[in-house]
Structures are given as structure tokens and as C-alpha cells.
Records
---
Amino acid sequence: NAGVTQTPKFQVLKTGQSMTLQCAQDMNHNSMYWYRQDPGMGLRLIYYSASEGTTDKGEVPNGYNVSRLNKREFSLRLESAAPSQTSVYFCASSEEVRYVSNEQFFGPGTRLTVL
Amino acid sequence: EDKVVQSPLSLVVHEGDTVTLNCSYEVTNFRSLLWYKQEKKAPTFLFMLTSSGIEKKSGRLSSILDKKELFSILNITATQTGDSAIYLCGVGTASKLTFGTGTRLQVTL
């Protein structure tokens, strides 16, 4: 039982390049999330998927797209990377948005640097 | 817009001290408040609080929620160097968690 996995762990991009961050969970969770974490800013929600087939914008969605490929996988795409997107990206999952329990389980993170 | 504010932003204490971390919130459709500990990697879950006045406890850590005054506190007694971390407060609504900026705790010998 791996929990939430993310690839890659590290990535360096040049401005304007594109890339996709991959996330998968094996806990049969319905909901998945992408966050970015910057110094002094806490965790900020980029996009989330309440269930397979749905996605919604979070607090900071500009410059990103997401795909909920199936129940297990939720990817985050940067179409044209900018230095402002240098950050640590965390994927998370939770059992069910509508339940009282919102406990989210986090992946190990991807450290992205855009030059 | 949902808002979660944590204080203090950072704190340095000596081993053995007791610390209290604060989290206040203004959200629509409150469901739960969660505390996480983040060391070098991913946040790890500490507590989830849904009802006022009921203390959750795990070893030297405890937390309580006040839904009338819209805040929670996280207490750590007899701190150890292993408690050094960022402590994150997240408030769950109908669809998502909104996190505060975190409190960075450093415990020195």
C-alpha cells in the first residue's frame, strides 16, 4: 500500500517549457487535490477533483491544467512554465468530499524550479 | 472567501517548554479543522476536530476547537527537538481544505 505517489521528485525547466506532474493513489479515494507550497505562503490549492470525471479550480489555478485520468490518477500540467511557478507541488487525496472527514493524505512532493 | 490565520508565524523554544499554537478561521460551511505536522517532506496528519470543547490528545500533543469563537489551539507539552517542524492548520468545508500559512516551531537544546 504505497498511499499517494508523485513523479518526478525534482524537475528543472526553462521558461516556456511544458511538463506534467503525475499523481496516483491506491487508497480508493474519490477526491484528489493539487497544492503548491511557497515559503511563508502555506499550502495553496491549485485544482481539485471531487470525484472521477470532475475537476474544479482552487485558489491559484492560473497557468495550470489538470486531468483526472481515472479514480487513481490526477495529473497537473504546466503548458508554458514561468519562474513564478517555481515551488514545491503536493498531491493529496481524501475519501469523500461530502463526509465530515476531510483528512487528506499527501504525496512526497515535487520540487520544481523554472529558470 | 475562506480564510485561515495561524499565529505565531514562528516560534523558538527550549526543550521542555510548553507551546500553544493558534488557528482562527472564517469559512463558509465549516465541516472540520485539521492539524498537520510538516517536517522536511509531506504534511502528516495529527488531529481532526469537528465538535467544540472536545479535546483530542495524542501523547504530548492536544488540540481543542471553539466553533463559537472560530478558533483552535494546538498544545505541545514537554517539547523535544523532534517537535521542530511547521504546523499547519486546515479548515474543511463542503468541498475542500483551506490552509493557513503555518507556524514554524524550532525547539532548541
---
Amino acid sequence: EPEVTQTPSHQVTQMGQEVILRCVPISNHLYFYWYRQILGQKVEFLVSFYNNEISEKSEIFDDQFSVERPDGSNFTLKIRSTKLEDSAMYFCASSVYGGYQPQHFGDGTRLSIL
Amino acid sequence: DAKTTQPNSMESNEEEPVHLPCNHSTISGTDYIHWYRQLPSQGPEYVIHGLTSNVNNRMASLAIAEDRKSSTLILHRATLRDAAVYYCIPQTGANNLFFGTGTRLTVIP
């Protein structure tokens, strides 16, 4: 069964550094998402992306965050200047269409900011 | 967005059926009810969704109350692999899922 893959599984970065998290969504899916989960807390929506544009974003997704689909397969989340509070699991997801369609999640990248 | 209420935790014996309840009394008429689960150290996994009618798939069944203010996820025979946090999520049609705290299901061998 096709799945969403995320790399790396664990990223350690110094505070203030830029980090890029990578995702390969399921190939025929058109909508892409990023979520995060701080240790012990809820899964939180960050952003959704369709047709090379952000379609929705949460308050968490401020100017320090950006997303890109640089080619036909990858979907990336960039954090420009990381803060300690950015430490979390970051999950990528994709769906065939938006709205009520099921979202398929990767197993996440654990981001640790030192 | 509709608020949900789920038990913090539930236990089930292996190979027994499990009924996981969810109250969503503020749900709107067009919200679908989605269920996801999160196994330890994994990303959320889609389980099932429905609007008004009861739904079945290979993983589970979803029973939706006639007034749509509550729903129940039914695992017909719990296995150890079903131990996870189960989330009930009314979805408005927007592209984002709002996860609550869910129900942590423990399966006892």
C-alpha cells in the first residue's frame, strides 16, 4: 500500500539555524499538509497546500515557516530560525482531494532544537 | 468547529469487541465525523468516516446517532495492534483536522 515517507526521522539543530523537513506524499494525491505534535500534547494543524499554493494555515504557521513543492514528488517544510519551542514531531500528510477526504500521514520527523 | 468529548482511556480484552464513544453535540449538519488513531511512535492513521449512515470498512464500524450528536467507533475483535489513541474529529469541509486528546485504548492479552 502506498505511503507517505518523511526524512529524516530525527533532526537535531542548534537554535537559530534553518531546518528543512522533507516529505514524499502519495503519488496521485493533490493536497498536502503539515502537522506538529509537541511531546505529550495534541496533534496541531500547521498548513495545507494545493496547486502550489497554501490553502489554509494556522496561527502557528508564522513568517518563520514556509512550505514548498520543489519538484513533482517532494513537499518540504522550512523553519528559518528555529526556536527551542519548535522542538516537536512534525507529520506530513496527503489526500487525494481536500475537504472530507481521508488524510494519510507519515511517521514523522522528530525535531530537537538545542 | 464542533467540540468533542471522549473518555480519556478505555481497556479491552484481546479478541473482544470495543465500543469507543464520542459526543459531538455542537456538530453542524454538513460536518463529517472522522476517526483516526495514533499508534505509539507513529503518525495518525485514518480509520473511518461518515455523515449520517452507519459505515463499515475492513478496520472498523462507525455507528452514528440519529441526531448526529454522538457516534461510536466499533472494533469487532480487538488485537494488541489496536492499542492506540483514538480521535473523533468532526470535519467542516476545511482542509485541516483538529485533533483533541482522544481515547487511549489499552488491549489486555
---
Amino acid sequence: SQQGEEDPQALSIQEGENATMNCSYKTSINNLQWYRQNSGRGLVHLILIRSNEREKHSGRLRVTLDTSKKSSSLLITASRAADTASYFCATDGAQKLVFGQGTRLTINP
Amino acid sequence: EADIYQTPRYLVIGTGKKITLECSQTMGHDKMYWYQQDPGMELHLIHYSYGVNSTEKGDLSSESTVSRIRTEHFPLTLESARPSHTSQYLCASSDRQGWTDTQYFGPGTRLTVL
């Protein structure tokens, strides 16, 4: 079974609102990464959080990691139409980078 | 934008044809990967390489083969394409040997086998 699972599978919000996506995983990890994929394109790395970190920021992105609950969340603040994409978490706990199914985020104008 | 390129971007071919999907990167990365992704689904690792003359199979069984004769080039070949091979193929690279490092992705090749 897959290592990372995102929740929700799809999220639709109004421009300017905040979007929160969650990722749960099963085994211990060294780090967790979040990637974005625009429709029909490859993935773009957004942020990496190490297992000894609890929170990390990058611009409008905020990632948290709770290793006791084996979960992470990605918050995008003040969303924009350009944020419309699929967002994937990726974990390394199984000696390889394993991606979840992703959360499809739609920002409505 | 990462300096990793894939050609063709779209390919529609008939059953039984031999095809090669090209992937090149100009970042000097040692490690390269091929993933298969169906629409709206997760990525599955099908091949990877630690460097020149190194190729390994990923966790999803694939009838494709790969080669790594040059650091910058990691082509994927299907000897006889079938409709079940219809999917998107993503190439990626990273600059360290570990699995934990950032991967840089190409734009993908969307393959349709009729």
C-alpha cells in the first residue's frame, strides 16, 4: 500500500481563502516533501521538512509535521488562481520516494 | 524551471510499435528516475539509475527498459507497445545518492497506444 495519502482528494475554494491539505503516512521517515503538479505537466518541488522539524515556511506556504501522528499538512494562504493544481506529498520511509494520490486544488475567481 | 527535458510531449501510436521516450538533464545529476502516472493517480517508480551504466527496476513492474550511457541522458524504450501502456511518463533527476533529496521533473510524455 502507498506510503503517503493526501486528504481531501479534491478541494475547491474562493480566491483569497486559505487552503489546507493533509498527508498521512505509515512508516518512519527521514523527511517529507510537498510537490505541485499543474495539469499535464511534471511535478515541481515546493518544500522539504525533515523529521526533526515541526514547522517550515516558504512564502505563502506553511508545512507542519507531526511524526507522532505520522501526518503533515500544507497550508497555502491567500490563495490565487495560479495555485490551481494537484499537490502531492512524498515520503522516503521505504528507501524510495513514494508519492500519494494527491489533492486536486481548484481556486475559483 | 528545472533543466530537464522530455520528448516527445505527446505520442499516439499503434499496437506493436517500438518507441523510445527521451529524457535529458543539464544539471549534472547522477540519479535519474522514470515514473508512470495515470490521470488523477499517484506516481509509480518504474526505473531508476544511480549513474552511468547503472539501471534498476522500480516498484511497479514495467515491460519497458532503460539505458544510461551518458550522465545527462536516460531514455526509456518499449519494444512492442500495447494499449495497457497508455499513460503519462515522467522523468526526474536528483543530485545526490540518497532517496531523500529533492527531485526535479521534466514536463512528461503522454503516451496513447491504440
---
Amino acid sequence: DSGVTQTPKHLITATGQRVTLRCSPRSGDLSVYWYQQSLDQGLQFLIQYYNGEERAKGNILERFSAQQFPDLHSELNLSSLELGDSALYFCASSVELGTGSPLHFGNGTRLTVT
Amino acid sequence: LAKTTQPISMDSYEGQEVNITCSHNNIATNDYITWYQQFPSQGPRFIIQGYKTKVTNEVASLFIPADRKSSTLSLPRVSLSDTAVYYCLVGDVYNFNKFYFGSGTKLNVKP
């Protein structure tokens, strides 16, 4: 158990809809990362937050947004959903930003857009 | 950016030692080398991390030559449960490489 909790585990929704994915980092971790993994694809980095502030942005679509709250949990919002957004969405956390801080991943939210 | 290159796939048999090499010719002075393991439909799991020479923990060893342009993850006596994708990441927060996973190496352990 990595200590990172993601909810829900599964989500089925229709095209055009909006969903929110939630992540609780490990106790003590200040940094949260979001990744997308489509079927048989690699992990695509979306965005990173550190102690409530956005620190790095990757291949995140404009339809997607995220935030990290004062209690350090994070939410990823996906709107105007398309079939191609169907994927596993992983959240990871790390202790700090500094060199050598490994990532600890949750078990993901599987999003199916129909 | 320090790009990493790994074999796409490897086959092995139970009980054998497996060595997966990652090339990172453009590694920077501040970069660490980190390996993750991922099973289907699960999040990646941190295996081992190193900066130079050799690092060993309870599950693997990481060999890093003096020039640091490559690294080798060594899994001793693999079992069927070691069948997974293994990712090598190089970098730190200042150049964001640590956030980007390559295609990884799909290890298939046979009985």
C-alpha cells in the first residue's frame, strides 16, 4: 500500500460530461502529480502541485484542470469529455520537490467515456 | 532533457537474474536515476534510486558506471510475479525529467 488514495476507482460517463477525480497524498507529502495512461500507452504527465501551488505542467488539455487544497488533497477536473479521454488516471505524491524524492502512486481511477 | 532509452521487452525464466539497462547519455550533474515497476492496471511502484556506483535494497540492485551515461537494474532470481513493465527515469525537479516516463521495458518471466 503506497498510502496514496484515489477515488473513485471506476467512473463511467458520457461524452460531453464533466467529472472530478480525487487524490489524497501520503501523510507528510507536499507534492502531488497527475498522470494519464491510455490503453497500452505510457504514462503521460499532466500536472504537478506543491503545497497548494502549481509547479509544473505537462501534456494537460485545456479541458482539464486541477488544484491542490490546503489539506493537500488534490482534484483533477475533466470537462467536455471525449471518447479519447478514456484512460487510467493516476495520482502520485512525494515528500518534497528536491532532488531524489521518489514518487508514490495510487492505484488510479479508471475513466470510461461512452 | 536527459532522454532515456530502454529495451522494449525482455524474456526470462524463473530463478534467473535479469539485468535491464537504461541509456541516458545526456544525464546532468544533479540528476538521480530512479526505477519503477508497474503491473497492469496498477500505479507504478518505486523500486530503487541511485546517483553513482552501486545501490542495493531488498528487491534489486542498481549499477551505475563512473560516467553515469547508463544504469543497470538487476533483479535477482526472478519469479513469475516479477512480470511487469520497468521504467527508468532520470532527472530532478529543476529540469522536470523526473516527471516523464518513457515506454519502459516489458519483462516477461516464464516458468
